[in-house]
Structures are given as C-alpha cells and as structure tokens.
Structure to design on (543 residues):
C-alpha cells in the first residue's frame, strides 16, 4: 500500500513537472559547441540587430550560473537547491549609460538581448514544503515551484561587482504547481514581477529589514586564446543579496483564483519590501566582450 | 666728498656685493643635503618653498608589471612627471624629507601602453586623489631617494568600464628604494633610478592582483630641477 502511495505521489510530481514543461536535459544539439571561456555561448545573439547596431560600442555574451542560495518571502524561506543559468547577449553604445562609484571605479550599464533559443533563464523546479505540513507527497503536501523570468534581464552592470549597487535587474515570477492549486498559480507576473536587484555589496533596505552584504568573489580578465580582440571577463564565487524587493499576492491559484487567499495566508503574501530577502550564492559569470560583433562571433566560433 | 661720505659709500657697495654673491650659485656656500646649481659647497641650499620637478630620463621608459589572475600585465609609459617640495633639508650629512604632490605616468596626452590583456587600455596613473607621497633623501657615497609613502591610482579601461587599482606602500612594502646619481658639473645626467622595486597592491579587485600581492616597478627619473623666486630649472644635487 505504501509503495502504491509513493508511486502515486511520484506520478503526481511527474505530471506536475510535465505541466511545467520540464523535461530531462536534451542532449547537445548536433555539431561542436563553444568551449573554454565561451562555454554556453552558442546561443548568444550575435546576429541580432541590437548587437549589430552597437558595433563600435561594446557587445558581449554572458553565461551566468547561480549555484544556490535561498529566498525568504514573508516568513517562508525557500532554499534554492539547484543551479540556475542565465544566458544573454549585451550591448552598450558609445556614450551610453554608466555609473561611477565612490572609489572611482566605473561601470557601463548594458542592455541585454535574449539568446537565440529564447531560454534566457533555465532552472530546475524546486520542491517547496507548504508551511505547517510535513512533505510526504511532493506536489501534494508541497508546491513544485518553477522560477521563471517575468521580463528581460536589464541594467546589467558588470563592474558593479564589489560595489553597493545592483549588478542587474532580474524580474521573476514563481509558477506554483500543486494538486489543488491548478496549472495557473503564480507569484508575480509579467506586469507585476518580483523584481530582484541584487548586489555583491551592502543593501539599503526599508525597515524592518537590516542591511546585508554579499561577496564580490573574484574578477579575472583574460585574452582570447585564438588571437581575437575579445576580452574575457570571469567572475567567480560571488554572492549576491537583495532584501529590498516586494512580493505580490498570488494569482490564478485554484479554480478561478479561489485559493489565492490560502496561498497568500500560508506564504505571508503580498509581502511588502523589507520583509523579503534573496541570497544567491556561488554565482559565476563568464563574459566575452568586444568592440566588434563580427570579431566576437568569430572568437566564439573558433572555440568550437 | 668728505672721508665720512666715502666711507659710507664703500660700506654700501660692499653690502651690495655681498647680497649679489649670496644669491649667485657661482659663489654660493651650500651645506645641506639638497642643493641646487652645484654640489656643496658651491651650490645653494634647496629651500622648503622651492618647487622640485622632474621627468623620465631622456630615452627611458617606465614599466610596471603585475599579475592578474595568472596573467602577467605590463604597463609601459614613455613620459612621467614628478612634482615635489623638500619639507626638511638639514645640514649634510643627513636625510632630507620630500613631499611629492604629483607622480603622473599618463597625463592624457602621453598614453601608456599595456600588454598582457587584449582590449584593456591605460586611462591614467596618478597619485590617488587627496593624497601626497613622501620620500627621504639620504646623502653619502651611495645616495638614496626612498619613497616612504605612496598610493598610486592606476585606472584601466576595459570594455565594461574602468577599474582602479591602487598600488604603492603598505604594511608589506614599506618603502620603494631609488638610487641617486648626481648631475655632472654642467647640470646634466642626474638620475633617480628605481630598479625592479616591489610595489604593493593596496586596494582593488582581484583583477588588480591577489590580496597581498606586489607588482614590480622600474623607472629612471632625470632632470630634477629647483625652481624658486630667483631662478628656475636649476639642477638639484644630493650632497
């Protein structure tokens, strides 16, 4: 009987994962893939009009991995138990926005372009216990949560690493799946996202939260091994923090949103700024930047 | 003209000659660690109000090498300027103290170059804003110009912005020693040479070097001159 029950629960969780569109990682597409510092940049949108039009400014490709961490929403802490990966292209036109910090360092503020496969943020679903319940049956006594982008990553500031300034803006929404919540239960939306603005420095949150501090990790610069003019920037072991964001109430939970109130009650939603926090650990980022998009594309190709 | 009046005129003339001689390097009687115009006793003592300036010796370049995450980075500059004043200049033998208000390796007109990292250029290398460097100058058979405090801000431009690395002295590298060669009698050929001197990373991201790391500094300054109210660009000597 117990075996049958567990099988049923596993089946339930599997169905939920299918509902999220989560499947086993597909094998790499045929053909060689970029390697070394360019690993993961095969879908960088070097052919996009934005990067082409920025030629002469600075263009680049980014692959960032968030190793783990946690998010506290209201009174509930959700551990980020699996890695998330962000991939995008970036561009900065001459004379574009930049920020100078008190220590004299200066960062350009880059606009971003989604990768060619549209998969700007990928992550495995999280099994989040429901407060007050022992999690016997994932997807029944817990919520399967898929972290999704609610819009493009913006205001990418690579050299804000080590400064009290957001490295990027990350609009998120959490897709909650549970046997009772249906398929359209979300925290945050494209129009009202959970907007993270994490920093490796120290935050300045509203009360009752107190400032928290991240870790810049290490920054390295390198040259292209094949002689292209591409500059390789590596950021490793960083911790990004934010406790200034708000989390809106749930939407679409249960039939016609009939269970929104229950999700809000269990997770303490909507939760105003000062009551939430995010800590993203083990953040490693590879950037390949160039003043010429054709040179950048050739450098990536040469690494295959 | 009475004898009394002649005597007065003679006294005045002698006094005037004495004044002229006292301000003329050819007849000066210097005795301090730093003199200008000539070595002791033929020069004039450098006053604490005098401006001392210098530049890279003709035909030389300055280099600074540091290691960024395993990559050796070398900055080479073809020009530099140094501005300073003596804050104390005791009688020789002894040690004079110098305050350096400018130590600039890239004034925007003369670019430094960088090798080791593609796409990275040198914006400037100047004393950190609001700081002055200090040095001591010691006479003797071997004459030393030792930088005792320095915070040099090196600004590097990358494709994603500017990174400032502060190098100089700290608890690890307490001084940067240089060796002085006096100018010849004609006032030329004098140098202050810094050869393979360690320079500490004071602040900066790991791109600037590992915490506690040092770089290597080479430079030969020449043409150190004194400018004051009665003359300008007169070569300085260490006695």
């Amino acid at each position: 009987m117990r075996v049958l029950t567990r099988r049923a629960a596993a089946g339930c969780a599997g169905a939920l994962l299918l509902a999220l569109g989560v499947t086993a990682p597909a094998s790499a597409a045929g053909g060689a893939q970029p390697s070394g510092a360019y690993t993961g940049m095969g879908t960088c949108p070097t052919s996009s009009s934005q990067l082409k039009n920025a030629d002469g400014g600075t263009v680049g490709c980014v692959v960032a991995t968030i190793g783990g961490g946690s998010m506290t929403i209201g009174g509930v802490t959700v551990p980020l138990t699996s890695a998330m990966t962000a991939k995008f292209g970036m561009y900065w036109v001459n004379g574009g926005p930049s920020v100078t910090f008190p220590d004299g360092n200066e960062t350009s503020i880059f606009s971003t372009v989604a990768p060619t496969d549209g998969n700007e943020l990928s992550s495995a679903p999280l099994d989040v216990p429901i407060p007050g319940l022992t999690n016997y049956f994932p997807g029944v006594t817990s919520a399967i949560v898929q972290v999704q982008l609610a819009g493009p990553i913006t205001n990418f500031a690579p050299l804000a690493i080590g400064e009290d300034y957001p490295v990027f803006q990350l609009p998120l929404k959490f897709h909650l799946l549970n046997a009772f919540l249906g398929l359209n239960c979300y925290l945050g939306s494209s129009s009202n996202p959970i907007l993270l603005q994490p920093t490796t420095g120290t935050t300045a949150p509203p009360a009752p939260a107190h400032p928290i501090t991240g870790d810049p990790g290490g920054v390295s610069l390198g040259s292209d091994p094949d002689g292209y003019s591409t500059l390789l920037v590596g950021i490793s072991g960083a911790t990004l923090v934010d406790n200034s964001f708000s989390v809106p109430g749930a939407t679409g939970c249960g039939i016609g949103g009939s269970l929104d109130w229950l999700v809000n009650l269990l997770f303490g939603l909507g939760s105003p700024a000062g009551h939430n926090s995010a800590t993203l650990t083990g953040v490693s980022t590879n950037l390949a930047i160039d003043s010429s998009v054709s040179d950048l594309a050739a450098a990536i190709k040469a690494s295959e | 003209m009475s004898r009394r009046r002649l005597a007065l005129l003679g006294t005045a003339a002698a006094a005037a000659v004495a004044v002229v001689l006292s301000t003329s390097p050819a007849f000066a009687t210097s005795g301090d660690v730093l003199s200008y115009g000539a070595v002791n006793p033929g020069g004039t003592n450098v006053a604490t109000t005098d401006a001392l300036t210098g530049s890279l010796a003709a035909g030389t370049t300055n280099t600074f090498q540091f290691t960024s995450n395993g990559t050796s980075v070398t900055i080479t500059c073809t020009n530099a300027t140094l501005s300073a004043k003596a804050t104390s200049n005791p009688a020789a033998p002894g040690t004079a103290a110098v305050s350096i208000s400018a130590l600039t390796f890239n004034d925007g007109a003369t670019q430094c170059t960088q090798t080791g990292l593609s796409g990275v250029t040198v914006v400037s290398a100047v004393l950190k804003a609001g700081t002055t460097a200090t040095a001591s100058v010691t006479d003797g058979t071997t004459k030393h110009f030792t930088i005792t405090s320095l915070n040099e801000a090196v600004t590097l431009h990358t494709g994603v912005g500017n990174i400032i690395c502060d190098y100089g002295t700290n608890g690890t590298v307490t001084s940067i020693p240089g060796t002085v060669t006096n100018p010849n009698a004609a006032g030329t050929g004098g140098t202050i040479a810094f050869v393979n001197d360690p320079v500490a990373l004071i602040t900066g991201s790991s791109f600037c070097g590992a915490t506690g790391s040092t770089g290597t500094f080479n430079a030969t300054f020449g043409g150190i001159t004194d400018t004051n109210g009665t003359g300008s660009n007169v070569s300085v000597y260490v006695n």
